[in-house]
């Protein structure tokens, strides 16, 4: 191992190879604090050539690689095992904004650029990169790609799959696949970039990406509205789509238990309460007052329990801050069994109704905290208080997951909508995923990574 580490140090500089426990500790614990690893070392390459050199050395010495971006994974996808034989390759030094092409509406960045930095680079050029996540100041573009991140604007702009024009990837043998084209149409064979988006670093190391940009909206209209049930919320979604088309950018829902969690930790942010809150946003070019008036006029014709319109940018940001603080508030509130699930939007009411009933039968007094991106059918569905005082909560996790996932798949849904699978859900994926689909994915994995060195111990 000393010989391997010496070769790594020679390849990228000894100051960028971390081996002391105090230095590696920030890289070894996942965001939810469920997985703790013990790596051989942490490598901090500074460019694509150095990443390729690391991968070639790892292949020669049969050392497994765990790619890591901002270490915001919620499923343990970026955490090594405890063997002390896996190398974390953290890409935080790959920070270059390579090109902003406003004529082609494209942005090319290194994988270590944070989502916020990509957004700012686009905005400085008068454009919008629309991916928006609560962790955007920390999460990195490479990690967003590896999990096919979604966020609050998928309803209008799509996930990272739809937002990506090209990739640069270091393959498991150390070769560099350069597919950073900004083309929107290319029928010359398979779209290889899609192999690596959502693969959680198991097929190669993404080092750069060319991303789609959009016109920067000059107008927003944002409202928070309370309704009596999820059925009414989905009816609102459909009627808003019919009235405003693709100007409907975001449609978030927050249930009553989630509101109580927010009230405990951010009382000043809560405008009111209702069985379900909807956070609605329209965006467009043109005059902001005109768009705002259009939403006000439409809302005046609807039945609601309560509602508030953002009158300026400060009030708009306050409403979005409330939404973005949910995850951190939940963490402060105590442990919960978390689910990042999605079903067709038409099936959300049935999922919410039937799943809650089965959980209550199995665990009387259970608390369900539900919120998320109802516009694309993605619900963050979190379960706690399965027993009095939350004693042994995670002992109940298998039974809770089985109930939730059975309902999700019965309705044509998925157990991983935007956070990935990682270590957390790998066994459940085997239970629910089409066996032929898994066989094909494993065949691709074996073809690209026959030694199994890329992020082992995850779902492939």
UniProtKB/TrEMBL annotation:
Q: Where is the FAD-binding PCMH-type domain?
A: 35-216
| Short name of one Pfam family | FAD_binding_4
The entry's keywords: FAD, Flavoprotein
Question: Record's Gene3D superfamilies?
Answer: 3.30.465.10, 3.30.70.2190, 3.30.70.2740, Uridine Diphospho-n-acetylenolpyruvylglucosamine Reductase, domain 2, Vanillyl-alcohol Oxidase, Chain A, domain 4
Q: Which cofactor does it need?
A: FAD
Mind telling me which SUPFAM superfamilies this protein's record contains? FAD-binding/transporter-associated domain-like, FAD-linked oxidases, C-terminal domain
GO annotation, biological process:
respiratory electron transport chain
Q: Which InterPro entries has this protein been placed in?
A: FAD-bd_oxidored_4_C, FAD-bd_PCMH, FAD-bd_PCMH-like_sf, FAD-bd_PCMH_sub1, FAD-bd_PCMH_sub2, FAD-linked_Oxase-like_C, FAD-oxidored/transferase_4, Oxid_FAD_bind_N
| Origin: domain of life | Bacteria
Residue ranges spanning the membrane: these are none
PROSITE patterns registered for this protein in UniProt: FAD_PCMH
* A GO molecular-function descriptor: FAD binding
Record family assignment: Belongs to the FAD-binding oxidoreductase/transferase type 4 family.
Q: Which PANTHER family match?
A: BLL6224 PROTEIN (PTHR43716:SF2), D-2-HYDROXYGLUTARATE DEHYDROGENASE, MITOCHONDRIAL (PTHR43716)
Full protein name: Hydroxyacid dehydrogenase
Provenance organism: Chromobacterium sinusclupearum
């Amino acid at each position: 191992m000393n010989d391997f580490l010496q070769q790594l140090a020679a390849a990228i500089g000894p100051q960028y190879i971390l081996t002391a426990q105090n230095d590696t500790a920030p890289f070894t614990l996942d965001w939810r604090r469920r997985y703790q690893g013990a790596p051989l070392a942490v490598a901090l390459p500074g460019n694509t050539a150095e990443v390729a050199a690391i991968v070639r050395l790892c292949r020669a010495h049969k050392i497994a690689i765990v790619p890591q971006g901002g270490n915001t994974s919620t499923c343990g996808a970026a955490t090594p095992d405890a063997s002390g034989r896996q190398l974390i390759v953290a890409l935080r030094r790959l920070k270059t904004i390579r090109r902003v092409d406003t004529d082609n509406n494209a942005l090319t960045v290194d994988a270590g650029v944070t989502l916020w930095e990509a957004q700012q680079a686009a905005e400085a050029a008068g454009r919008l990169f629309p991916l928006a996540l609560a962790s955007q100041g920390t999460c990195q573009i490479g990690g967003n790609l590896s999990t096919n991140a979604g966020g609050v604007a998928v309803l209008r702009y799509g996930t990272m799959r739809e937002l990506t024009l090209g990739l640069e990837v270091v393959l498991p043998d150390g070769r560099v696949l350069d597919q950073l084209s900004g083309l929107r149409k290319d029928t010359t064979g398979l779209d290889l970039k899609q192999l690596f988006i959502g693969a959680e670093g198991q097929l190669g190391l993404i080092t750069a990406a060319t991303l789609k940009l959009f016109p920067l909206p000059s107008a927003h209209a944002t409202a928070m509205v309370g309704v009596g049930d999820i059925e009414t919320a989905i009816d609102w979604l459909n009627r808003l789509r019919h009235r405003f088309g693709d100007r409907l950018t975001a449609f978030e829902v927050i249930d009553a238990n989630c509101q109580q969690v927010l009230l405990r930790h951010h009382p000043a942010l809560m405008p009111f309460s209702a069985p379900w809150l909807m956070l609605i946003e329209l965006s467009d070019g043109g005059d902001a007052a005109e768009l705002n008036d259009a939403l006000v006029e439409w809302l005046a014709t609807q039945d609601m329990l309560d509602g508030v319109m953002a009158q300026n940018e400060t009030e708009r940001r306050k409403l979005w801050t409330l939404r973005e603080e949910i995850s951190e508030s939940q963490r402060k509130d105590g442990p919960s069994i978390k689910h990042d699930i999605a079903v067709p939007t038409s099936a959300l009411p049935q999922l919410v109704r039937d799943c809650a009933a089965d959980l209550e039968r199995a665990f009387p007094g259970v608390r369900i905290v539900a919120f998320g991106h109802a516009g694309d059918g993605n619900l963050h569905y979190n379960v706690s208080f399965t027993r009095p005082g939350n004693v042994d909560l995670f002992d109940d996790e298998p039974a809770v997951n089985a109930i939730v996932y059975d309902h999700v798949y019965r309705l044509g849904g998925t157990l991983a909508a935007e956070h990935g699978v990682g270590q957390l859900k790998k066994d459940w994926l085997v239970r629910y995923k089409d066996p032929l689909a898994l066989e094909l994915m494993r065949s691709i994995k074996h073809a690209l990574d026959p030694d199994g060195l890329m992020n082992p111990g995850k779902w492939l």
